Amino acid sequence: MKKKYLLLFAILFVCGSLLGQTKEDIQKITAAYDMTKLKEKEAYYLKKSREEKQKALAVARAKNWPTYTIKEDGSISELMKLTPTGFPIYYATTNVNAAKATRANHLNTGGSLGLNLNGQGMTVREWDGGNVRATHNAFGGRLTVVDDASTTTAFHSTHVAGTLIAAGSPASVKGMASQANARTFNWTDDESEAIAEAQGGMLVSNHSYGVPITNNGTTIPAWLIGSYSSDAVAWDDIAYDAPYFLAVMSAGNDGQNEDNTEPLSFGFDKLVANKTAKNNLVVASCDDVTVATDGTVNPASINISGFSSEGPTDDFRVKPDITGNGSNLTSTSNVSNTATGASSGTSMASPNVAGTLLLLQQHYKNLTNSFMRAATLKGIACHTADDAGEIGPDPVFGWGLLNAKKAVETITNNGITSWVSEENLNSNQVYTMTVNSPGGIPLMASITWTDVPGVANNGNLSANDATPALVNDLDIRITRNNATYYPWKLSADPNSPAIRTEGNSVDNVEQVKIDSPAAGQYTITVNHKGSLVTGSQKYSLVITGLSSAFAINSTSDNLTVCSNQNAVYTFNYTQAPTSSGTTTFSAVDLPAGASASFSPASLNANGLVTMTISGLSNITPNEYFVGIKGTSAADTETRYKSLKVYNSNFQAVQLQSPTEGQQAISTTANLTWVTQPNAQTYNVQVSTNPNFSSFLINETTTDNEFQISGLSEATRYYWRVIPANFCGNALDSNATIATFATGTLACNNTFTATDYSNNFIDSVPNSEAFVPLTITGGYTIGDINVIMDITHTWIGDIKVTLEGPASIGSPIITLLDIPCGDNQNINCTMDDDGVSPSCTGIPAVSGNIAPVDSLSSLNTLPADGEWILRVFDFNNEDGGTINNFSINLCRVQSALSVGDNPIVNSSVYPNPSQGIINVAIPALTDKATIKLFDLQGRQIFSKETTQVTTSFGIENLQDGIYMVNIENEQASVTKKIILKRN
Q1: How far apart are the first and last CA of the chain?
Q2: Which of 337-341, 651-655, 961-965 has the largest mean confidence?
Q3: Residues 561 and 607 in one domain
């Protein structure tokens, strides 16, 4: 879809004590986010959830289903949507009895590590069923209910919030991050709200709810359990566009309570909906464990809670990801401002984990002045977990029980006994790193990445379809001499232990473990299979069990500089306690022509190192990954940082379309050009004057395309694109100027479909109807409108598209996408100048309607060939037919003369009109003919005139769009006019 220039909206957030993270923190987190895309997706997911909820409630009324229930134990169940097969999907919380334990206390004030990590200045988000009692004493005014705070509070959401952030008031309810802030939401519209919060710098959220296998006496369809569903795709989509955001989700409480009717193996395969996403962190629950004073746990004492839902996913990914303690946790209650209560479930384990991960982010920020990407946070949590259950990962415990103490120690000792880094892998690139193992302790290396969303199973695939959801398939290996060590991978039999004898092509967390390595050097390699669909993939690398004489860790951000500036990075240099000697610093992978200096050039004791990169004036603008390398007698270590370089020496932008001198352009055109690495924005200018003394368009965009409409027929235009960046702007005089000329439009061509043999929309899931239509005549598209009549009993289920001929690449234009909810029928004209559907009456969509995708993207393409109107119905019970499909085509043709004939400068006004039309033909000296047509090409009116201004009335016609054709012997132009009398 071609996009018009989109205004970038600034998002304002409260940055005081309530929000926690500072404005600078938020800017760092969101610096690389595409805010325009996030706003678009926020609106899309909000519309989608509202429509799905509306449909579900209507069916529930007809079938007498419950829509919202609160059980005696305080658990909540609410109807949210339907599956494509019409099955009701409920979000639910479940509470059962058990006991409590956590190791976050080692991080808190008074803990064994002396770190004083209590969540100060941090903010966690919570989505749950019902509102939190924000006035509870344990929250101390640090919790904001973002949704309607006047609605009834709930025990479950209040209890979860306490596990996240409650202060010790009373002591028994002390949460994981007892001084953090929280923003809480009802689970309705959770996807769109999460996108909105991500734009405010959200790092961690908790979701202690899900879709039970059985609820209100019905069991969900087997295909949905374990499948990579549309819900999973949505959360992967959110995570991919907001790579610092990690959603922590409870696995569910269907362990010993419920069984999948068609499982991968009996007793397994119980994860539903967003629990099967790739980029989130799904939490299982264990019973109480005995923790030694040093924080160690005997793996044999870690027992899964009987209620905890088991994985894996249908494509055999490791899910759940990790285990927390959700057994009989005492926390805040909504009964009063001092009330407490005990509850158990994965709902309790999830905030136990989420609150602890917030502390890990706090610790990382304290050490490095930056936050971790979500993949790094998830990778550290999985890498350092205490193995439980079967050796290696399994579909019950995931990677094991969260070990907050070991996770923090891994971050603290980064470069000495562990390694944590954020890397980037380009297509066909191979990354290698050599590490020293002291021997006697396991050597472990893992990679984690936020993967591109995959393709959803919406019921169109069978149960337990094993097609991998993974898109970018990275690989990690450890080698020494002739031995290769492979990552863990779940066995095809969930009852059997994981294997590590081959590559892993399903997980986006890969870990290689050498249980008893001999002392010496090992090589870690990261590459990828197939192609990286995005051209590169950022990933996080975590290694433990190594030994190094020193560490270099960044304390500065990735940099963007002008070429006349220096790039200055700072690093902490730390020597291992048992090491001595001198480490010398050098730079690696500098762009050609650049140089680096170090202050100091070497160190033999702990200190700060500054790397200054200069000589960037002749560097090609681009993003580079530059490294600082430390070399001692015993070791070498390299850390990479991103460096983006811009300069003020701009090249002329290469214009693509329209091509220079192109004729017969429509009155709506798409301007495109070649992107430049040195440009952050582009100033698009269009004028009828070659010296640009005046502008028709003078706008700025970050895209490499711009849609312009409202051009006059038979007119010559000049256009240019001027690049800019924060270093400066290109000179207007250096810009390449191109010309194009619009043609004249003839809009009296209507083509109507005749083949309705596949027009039936069945009342079964994922049904499709289509009607073809053939255009002939050798026409070039100047403007196109789609006229359609569709009978359907619930148009909130359908998507309508127009597919163009194969000869022009089979372009697909989305006309309507779940346009209305509980409404019937469509009888309208799709026109770029139309409006949004009113969704009232029958038909609910009528009149002139603007399509979702712009039809003008088809302009200047050949019209001949087969066009297809398709209707997709994603759900069951409602069906219909395509009754009529026709296309009104305005063909564009070269003007006999450009800019000279008075006809081509004609204007029609006012537009819209309430009944009177004025036609102005400047400098008319001869005779002209004025004709009025409807969209079907039928002539309504014809009049000859010799006057410069002619008026006539159309107040007796129906409201809608009409075509005014003005012609003489040399030229013909057609103008669109809208009649709208109220």
Answers
A1: 32
A2: 651-655
A3: yes
Number of domains in the chain: 5
Q: Which residues of 251-271 are buried (b: 16+ CB within 10 A; e: fewer)?
A: bbbbbebbbbeebbbebbbbb
218's tokens? 């019905």
| Cβ neighbour number for residue 889 with a 10 Å cutoff | 25
Structural domain for 35, as ranges: 23-424+439-458
Q: How far apart are CA 423 and CA 431, in angstroms?
A: 9
The tens digit of pLDDT for each residue in 15-42 reads 333 334 688 889 889 988 888 889 989 9
Write the DSSP string, 258-292. Answer: ---SS-SSTT----BGGGG-SSSEEEEEE----B-
Distance CA 239, CA 449 (A): 11
pLDDT in tens, 793-819: 888 888 999 999 999 999 999 999 888
Amino acid identity for residue 589 in this structure: D
Per residue in 295-308, pLDDT (tens digit) is 888 888 899 999 99
Which one-letter amino acid corresponds to residue 303?
Answer: N
Per the domain annotation, does 465 fall within a domain? no
DSSP string, 528-594: ESS--TTSEEEEEEEEES---SEEEEE-S--EEEETTS-EEEEEEEEE-TT--S-EEEEEESPPTT-
- Give me the CATH number covering residue 566: 2.60.40.10
Q: Are 886 and 943 in a shared domain? A: no
Q: Are strands 607-614 and 567-575 parallel, antiparallel or unpaired?
A: antiparallel
Q: Are residues 449 and 591 in the same domain?
A: no
Q: How far apart are CA 734 and CA 730, in angstroms?
A: 7
- Helices 190-198 and 35-63: angle between axes, nearest 10 degrees: 160
Q: Are residues 726 and 764 in the same domain?
A: no
State CA 835 to chain mean position distance.
28
Residue 321: closest CA among 260, 374, 396: 396
Relative to beta strand 181-186, strand 123-128 is: parallel
Q: Do 40 and 143 belong together in one domain?
A: yes
d(CA 753, CA 416): 72
CA distance 84 to 59: 13
Instruction: Say if residues 689 and 671 touch (Cβ distance below 8 Å).
Output: no
97 Cβ contact list (under 8 Å, min separation 6): 328, 342, 343, 344
Is pLDDT of 102 > 60?
no
Give the three-state DSSP class for 364. helix
Residue 532 maps to a domain: no
pLDDT of residue 13: 31
Q: What integer best gives the mean pLDDT of the chain?
A: 89
Are residues 153 and 294 both part of a single domain? yes
The predicted pLDDT at position 15 comes to 32
Residue matched to tokens 């209590």:
118
Residues 156 and 185 placed together within one structural domain of the fold: yes
514 part of a folded domain: no
**With a threshold of 0.85, does the pTM exceed it?**
no
Beta strands across the sheet bearing 865-873: 767-775, 865-873, 798-803, 812-817
d(CA 250, CA 74): 17
Same domain (yes/no): 866, 973: no
Please give the single-letter amino acid code of residue 875.
Answer: N
CA–CA separation, 331 and 341 (whole Å):
6
In total, the chain counts a number of residues equal to 982
Dihedral-angle region of residue 300 (phi above 0 means left; psi in -120 to 50 means alpha; beta otherwise): alpha
